[in-house]
Records
---
Amino acid sequence: MGMTAADALGPVLADLAATGAPIPAIRISRSPDTGLWAVKLTARDGTGQGFTLDPSEPPEHLIARASDQVQEWMFDQLGRTAPTNWPPCPLHPEGHPLNAKAADGMAVWMCPSGAVIAEVGNLAATVPPGNEASESAG
């Protein structure tokens, strides 16, 4: 059995929790016509964003795509109250967020310079907990 949509979302949700960022409500369904997973992320205020995942993609691509889409959701959430640089690049914390990419068989958070910072799901070691949550609360 392959990776599920929940499996693909698990690592980025761990990164949200590790950095103190808001966690969306998630609804997943599968299209009987295309076989694609439809994922809906919803904030506490009811705003949401949807995207699809193709279960035929390799796991690292699924995780990177799910992470990219959750990051877009975070940009929308933080854009109302705080800088939209989640997750912040530890090499350039005021400059830009990290990018989710599939590289060498893993989904990673990467600086736009090309430096791999952490595997998706392991941000706790590179981004201090509460970094975004404290900014978005103030």
Note: The mean pLDDT is 87.
---
Amino acid sequence: MAEKMTDEEWRAFVSDGTRTGKLSTVRADGSPHVAPIWFLLDGDELVFNTGKDTVKGRNLARDGRVALCVDDDRPPFHFVVLNGRARLSEDLGELRLWATRIAARYMGEERAEEYGARNGVPGELLVRVGIDKVVAVKNMAA
């Protein structure tokens, strides 16, 4: 039977391994845009980077509302949906630091600097989302 995850459980779940998040942003016409992202949790914030001129970058600059879904598509199935509002920064020091940390999670420590240098450059945005709402369910098919 499905059950809610505790705060500790959902944080561990979204931070486990190299699970990507599916980020939903709001287009200018009000329709949703969904894209996979690499991310980290930093306390009560979701952190990721994206290009300033990408669809999600433009959407976030105009309307900071986001939803992020992280799931496990294997039985017994689990998912977490985080909702919040994004703040954008172009501070190159912070951008490079977080791009490197995110890369360490997804590409490994041995390639973190390489990806941090690639993604921590002018034209990229550091995105911090204050998490306002969490829906976290485990054992959907148990």
Note: The CA atoms of residues 4 and 139 lie 9 Å apart.
---
Amino acid sequence: MLLLPALNDLIDITTTRAAATQNHPHLPIYLLLVEMSLISALLVGYVMCANKVRSWFYILTLSATMSFTLYVILALEFQRSGLIRVDAADRTLADLRKSMR
């Protein structure tokens, strides 16, 4: 009786994990993300145009911050194709599968 509930929980969590990795935001979410990036860059550029001298520090900081933020969001969404990987979690599940044989 102790084995069946634990096995059932194991199957449930793997099914939940598999379903979570297959669910992705729809295209309008990504378009909204890009649109918000462009709007914020436009507003910063509008505020900075009042000065006669361009501040390259602010321009590069905004560009780097927006690029890094978008990259991290997309890398976390698609975890198997990028620098942020979930190999350790996959290895744990593969080891568990080997031990069940």
Note: Residues 27-48 form the longest helix (22 residues).
---
Amino acid sequence: MKRAVSITALLLVCSSGPGLAETCGAPADWLALAPEGGTTFKAALSVGSETPKVGAPFDVELKVCSPDNRTADRLAVDATMPAHKHGMNYQPQLTKAAEGHYKATGFLFHMPGIWQITVSVYSNGKPNHLSVDIDVP
């Protein structure tokens, strides 16, 4: 069961198990994304130091890695509101900053509630999905 997190000035890691900072080099205050299915990819993200606000654009920093050293052929990132069955009105633009480190610009939550950020990591033609829920007041 996934849990929603309210982001405060410091973000909280919202998963259990081995620390992502050790695996992906992400700071301890980044959000860990939960894997969907049997993926071995791991990911952590940061939305900055403040909770995203309704109607205010924000960027996401993302770290992605795989303990078995698989590489990503490509990544995609998006956000949806599962309870409302809709996504954002904008498509974020993803750029690679360094190996395993990405930046997504152009996120904008147009209403309050639980938003799910999903990262899709494609490797050998197979999608691997990871996600985290964020409660936007």
Note: The chain is about 5% helix and 50% strand.
